Amino acid sequence: MSYALTGNAVLQLGLYLAVLFALAWPLGLYMARILAAERLFLAPVENAVYGALGIKPGEDMSWKAYATAVIVFSFGGFVLLYLLLLFQSHLGLNPQGMANLTPDLAFNTAVSFVTNTNWQSYAGESTMSYASQMIGLTVQNFLSAAVGIAVMAALIRGLSRQSAKGIGNFWVDLVRSTLYVLLPLALIWAVLLGSQGVIQTLNGYAMGHTLEGAQQTLALGPVASQEAIKMLGTNGGGVFNTNSAHPFENPTPLSNFLEVLAILLIPAACCFAFGKMIGDKRQGIAVLAAMTLVFVPLTLFCVSAEQGGNPHFAALGVDQLASATQADGTMANAAQSGGNMEGKETRFGITNSALWATATTAASNGSVNAMHDSFTPLGGAVPMLLMKFGEVIYGGAGSGLYGMLVFVIITVFIAGLMVGRTPEYLGKKIQAFEIKMASIAILTPCAFVLIGTAVAVLTSWGKAGLFNPGAQGFSEALYAFTSASNNNGSAFAGLSANTLFYNTALGLCMLFGRFFVMLPVLAIAGSLAAKKATPVSAGTLPTHTPLFITVLIGVILLVGVLTYLPALALGPIVEHLIMIKA
Description:
Elements: H1 7-35, H2 43-53, H3 63-86, H4 103-114, H5 124-127, H6 130-160, H7 170-195, E1 206-209, E2 215-218, H8 223-232, H9 253-278, H10 281-308, H11 311-315, H12 349-362, H13 377-388, H14 399-419, E3 424-425, E4 428-429, H15 432-458, H16 460-463, H17 470-485, H18 500-529, H19 546-580
Helix pairs in contact: 1-9, 3-4, 3-6, 3-18, 4-18, 6-7, 6-8, 6-9, 6-18, 7-8, 8-9, 9-10, 9-12, 10-12, 10-13, 10-19, 12-13, 13-17, 13-19, 14-15, 14-19, 15-17, 15-18, 17-18, 17-19
């Protein structure tokens, strides 16, 4: 099996990263000013919101009060969305007469969007009314992303404050993240996407005619507005079942570039915001460098694996093509001289499909413009591995940075043990409490991935949803629980997930994967905020140097590999060995 990268693929990835960082840098500085209340040009609107909701913007919260506010707000959003989905047929804006969701599907969907996972066990165009899409799902696309940014801001304050009891005000962080960051960006992106032909309408579905003369129902909807925040908020849940592979949702190469750019824009900007808020831009750049140095090689490997394709197909000669003809007279994917194009849109090709797959799983986005289930075994293993790292390689809006800072704390602790010094980060001593909380934040999603997968492949309930036997079926279950527990939302398509078992099990994984990371992070923030900063000395470990970045990457890779290698060996690795077997 050959692995080769084209110059075009390298050029496209380089251009993508150049534009991403060029936009993320000023956006990050802007976010820092907003979260630090340095640039509040919408203060009258902001104050009106506080007055209407009875919020006291000057009130500083302890980490426990902040965490309580996060849970109460998220639970309230879940209840409202759950009820909306249960009764959507009675709430108007439903020109197609969509039925109410079943309780288990409504539970799964409400949990999914509140936790910024956006896993979809349904086809949007045949399940959701326009009211559910706009009032329910799109609203949560904004709010769940804002919650992630708020928790990130709280952790940064914990690192930058000294002898403080509070870490900020959740309601203020929530309002400012939504009003100053997410809403303006979503408006800009919606206009840009609309200019490329992404549809935006409340009309009922239209009837069209195929070239053969048959009638076809064309699903419509308010797509551009949801598409913008779906990408920017690292949400991923689409109006259409085929997500951003659908021409109404992603019609042109430029719309594809804008959408995949939006996936990583806020997560990358958060690194610059971090450096600005703590007063040391080198720290933010170091974190961003660590993310990028993991992302780029894995993306290039995914591209090369897909360009290599299946060696058995590539080995077929002209005389053997007849044996590759299917029963309906069409040609199977025989000679893969152009690589593995199965499950990919021709207008995007292998490079843009693989770039999207890695970007969407490096972030907690989960949207797709190609079917990951159709990737080669090792090509499909890359997005799976990126999720297994805890989605800290850029990660979600806010959640990627605070997840990465948890790994930074673990790295500092390990480095401190190696040199026999009390671990410190940004002048704060890292002690037993912080390490315990960091361990919970890292290991909880891991546990739910492995336990959930084991239950799925060992019980009749789980196996009933697997359409493929053997290693591929195992990979589908492993991918699903990895996606849910790490709040991603993408899936291998060969899994029937709209069942009582999967709706419930994956819903629980989303809840634990979200809040059993958030709560320890807020506990760390509160603990660090209460400490005094230790002056820099000759023995202080620099955390912005290439050496520290290398050690940080090593810790991330070791945690991911040691935790998941046996599971990966049973799935994509053994499937790859089967594929290349003579």
